[in-house]
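Could you please consider the sequence and fold following this short note?
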Amino acid sequence: MSHGRRALLPPLGLLTLISLAALLFSVSVGSASLTWGDVWSVMLGEGEPLANTLVLELRVPRSLSAFATGGLLAIAGALMQVLLRNPLADPYVLGLSGGASVGALAAMLAGLGGVMISGSAFAGALASTFLVFGLAHGTGSWTPARLLLTGVVVAAGWGAVITLMLAMSPAERLPGMLYWLMGDLSYARTPWYALALLVSMCLVTIPLGRSLNVLARGPLQAAALGVNVRPLEWTIYVSASLLTAMAVTTAGSIGFVGLVVPHMLRLVLGNDQRLILPACALAGGALLVLADTLARTLIAPEQLPVGVITALLGVPTFLFLLYRSR
């Protein structure tokens, strides 16, 4: 095994243990608490019927959905920050999340479900991608600053469209749509598609880590070192769109995970994308699992939207990081 690969194992191993501990904690804590022994008995098929239902049908799917969503958002944020060479970039700032939300809400209002909502969210995110790139490009080449500003304006536009859709929605659908827009994992029962995408994207992006490291230094230097810059940039943007669409479809609109997690990991682990991307999958997943656990236990039996918890944690954390990096 090469020295570079050996260097990746300790931090990833530690993050894997933290993720497993977060999942186990999430499954055992709730309005009806279970001991770790109870959870283990359920996993062995020896649990009581009530514990089986609570763990296998409610908590495990929700916890795995939270883990997958957090990992997807963190990887998307890391990719966008490499593309723009700006730690403030993430799918929400650049309008990808807004486009995905508009697509998903339109599918909901049309009475569609399941795969159609996911497809509509991806179409919305991809449309936002083309819109931001097209407007930022203009008659010349785009720059990271221009792309970031264009993304902020497009995100504001999507926000206005979402407000209009909510204003025109039937009253009986409005509470559920509002709760979903704040980030809601209450109805997340099928985490397998999001988990499959998370694993697949890690397998696809890790081999690109060396090229991403070069691209982070600037497109001119990357081109001089033999990187095919424009296709790589489009690969990053389409990948981030797909990741964001799946996250929005699974859990609604959740902010700050894609912004804070990559930034914190770079402060601790450095800026090697071969390490940062899988670390984002683990750390983002663990963070959202813990945030969702807090959301459903803080005022139990009532539940808070998990997006509220990530915002309450993310805003002061990011301000602290900005203060330290002055």
User: Anything to note?
Assistant: The two ends are 39 Å apart (CA to CA). The chain has a mean pLDDT of 82.
